[in-house]
Amino acid sequence: MKLWGGRFRRGPTDKFVSFESSLSFDFRLAPFDIAVNRAWAKMLAKIEIISDSELKKILAGLDDVENDFEKGRIGRDDKFEDIHTLIEDRLFTYAGVAARKLPAGRSRNELISTDVRLYLRDRIDYIIGQIRGFQRRLVARATENSKVVFPAFTHLQPAVPVTLGHFILNYFWKFERDKRFLKFAKDEVNVMPLGAGAAGGTTLPIDREFLMRELLFSKVFENSVDATSSRDFILVFLEACVNMGIHLSGICEDVVIFSTPHFGYIRIPDEYSTGSSLMPQKKNPDFFELVRGKTGKIMGNLIALMAALKGLPSGYNRDLQEDKVSLFDAIDEITEILEIFPSVFSSLEFDEARISKSIEDGTICAQAVAEYLVQKGVPFREAHGIVGRIIADCEAAGTKLRDLKIDALKMYSNRFAADVFPLLDPAGVIKQLAVSGSPAPLRFEQQLRMAYEQSEG
Fold first, then answer.
1. Active-site residue 347, yes or no?
2. End-to-end CA distance of the chain
3. Cα separations (Å) of 28 from 82, 115, 207?
């Protein structure tokens, strides 16, 4: 069945029919296409294009079609151009001639966009729910490790002391931004194109306000040409997915690095590891490596759609059929990753003894010691140089900063006094941190409460 063809003397070849069909990937839009058809039928009855009896036949027929999909009685068939054609054909078998009246005043161009928006709106809500679940796991793990002193890194070099709980919450806030990004994307999605026709509206007195309320859209498009051709909403969503993928990939990189024998901070359970076909000793972090790889694929989906859109003229073009390939793949990848990632992260084991040993020399206290001198009246650049020389001399002598006595420290500056000793211990540094957002105990408790509230909201 085709939704067009009156002006054609010859039909398309079988190969072309198969080539142009989108049913292999837009089949998942069926429930949303049916929802739009229900709303459209009610609106047509409201403006008296169809009768009440025809409306009843159409709505009953759509219920039957929906039931066919749910029971698996309808499959993908390349003789149909898309899901819309398949549903219209199936509806005719149940509602008869009344089904032929349903498309009045409506183009597939606006229908496609509306279906995808309903589908994406649903998926965004689902993904936000997945993120909340992951955030709860992060809060739980941060709480468990709130007192474990842990090195923060810059340039992958030990920098300053924080706590493991504070470090874990750095992941939390990345996903909080992802939630906000997705909510923004949902606002872009929730604009209704129905009533735009193919590009210039319709002469029928379509009730757009009724359709908007029926389908729970927040507003309608102001311009009919823009309504049918805009795919900005998919671009914004894919950008949010890329951002999320980058955050997930960053966590994976941390886990891969920290689980190597050279660090030994993390042990990955057997359930989420694999071995080598040749080397018996290997225990590989394959899950985290796969997520890193899939992030590249998600980025590729954004690039593919951008490339498709960048040279299109105004109005609908068939190139836009391919937008769903990129969209659906990104959704499938992100939802699958978020389905398993929280459990994997919760199963990670942190080796507190190994972490503590890696910072026992106290060099990560250097910033705090320099700032100690600043509070004693030493200019910062001078204080920076003093502490730098202390560290270099400790490295040359094989001694630890935390083991230096006051007489040794005074050789570098007479501003040193006994009150510096708490700052030679990483845990002591954390207790004296002053600013909000730091891992200081009180600040961390405040951050933890905020994170808990955000994960529940």
1. no
2. 48
3. 11, 10, 28
1.20.200.10, 3.40.50.1100, 1.10.220.30, 3.40.720.10: CATH of 109-357: 1.20.200.10
CA angle 399/149/385 to nearest 5° reads: 45
Residue 155 is among the residues annotated as catalytic for this protein: yes
pTM over 0.85: yes
- What local confidence, expressed as pLDDT, does residue 17 receive? 56
Choose the catalytic residue: 51, 53, 276, 436: 276
Lowest mean pLDDT of 13-22, 82-91, 109-118, 300-309, name the range.
13-22
Is there a contact between 430 and 444 (Cβ–Cβ < 8 Å)? no
Q: Which residue stretches of 262-379 are H helix?
A: 286-309, 323-347, 352-358, 366-375
Write out pLDDT tens, residues 300-330.
Answer: 999 999 999 998 999 988 888 889 999 999 9
Token couple for 58:
């159409």
User: Average pLDDT of 370-391?
Assistant: 97
Contacts with 188 (C-beta within 8 Å, 6 or more apart), sequence order: 232, 233, 236, 237
